[in-house]
Amino acid sequence: MRTIAAVSAAAVMAAAASWPQGAAADDFSFTVVAGHPPITAGVAAIRDFFIPEVNRRLEEAGGNHTITWNEAYAGALADVQGVLEAVEGGVGDFGYVPHLFEADKLPLEQITYVTPFGSADLKTMMRLVRDLHDEVPEMAQAWRDNNQLMLAAVGVDTYHLATTFPVESVEDISGRKLSTAGLQTNWLRGTGAVPVAGALPDYYNAIQTGLTEGTVTFGSAMAPYKFFEVAPHITKVNFGAQSASALTVNLDVWEGLPDDLKEIIQQVAIEYQDYAADNYTNSAEKSLNIAAEGGAKIKEASDEMRAGFANAMPNIALEWAKSLDDRGVPGTKALEAYLRLSEEAGVSFSRNWLAE
């Protein structure tokens, strides 16, 4: 269930009144909303890079504009499934939107989740997503339909298994319940595993209480969310880096900003995209090291196991594309463009997602 934090209208107005507004028209106050806490690398990158870098460049440009930032992370104003609506409705001005939970409203943004087993190079994958936006204007239009502009594509490092039991083959997860999110649940089709939809903040308790027996998640999440404590068997399947979120801005807010301020924000947002990608990649290595030190048993999946996952599932990419075509959304156009751009960038997949 998607939820915007339950605060009364009076409370919101009172809080807004308490934020410094500035006496002149060139002083701004913005609220950044994230359902995830800043232990999530993409949110940390907003706090540690995007906000201070925008402020630094404004000062460097002569100080004609100043911004006071209110940082509402960890569900302070919206949970992970409510950020899109929070920014759309103006509860937040900027948002860290996990669009993997928004398949209905942002269907084309799910492109990497229906084409797993690609590259683990997150920075390359996010640049591919931006290039895809240039080729498929319906992607940007979907954000506009939700009263937002995407400033940066934010992904996560490659996905692995963390389980309560050892995994030697695909057959070992048959009948097991695993925590997953969004269209990622499709990765388990054909394996006999039972996907249980959820979100990162829920997985630990789900595993600890026996609701699930592990998770399919990215490496950088293993240590911050302490999954290795309850699921100590980590199998590095390498499902591929994924485009999971976006840094966005409310369109009404954006259209009211002066051009020079927009230019600085857009420049920093592009750099934030790479910064966040590096943050995730570096955090993944550290996270797995911490997990190992904490007693996790980590091993690389064999080529046979990885091929087993890739070939067990039906062609989820073509299914997705055709279902969107039927709704009047250019799924096949997006899929063909994405795979062509991937090939041009030297990215290969363990399976031909265009083959029937």
TrEMBL record:
Signal sequence interval, chain numbering: 1-25
UniProt entry keywords in alphabetical sequence: Signal
Designated name of the protein: C4-dicarboxylate TRAP transporter substrate-binding protein
Naturally occurring in which organism (per UniProt): Neoaquamicrobium sediminum
Upper lineage: Bacteria, Pseudomonadati, Pseudomonadota, Alphaproteobacteria, Hyphomicrobiales
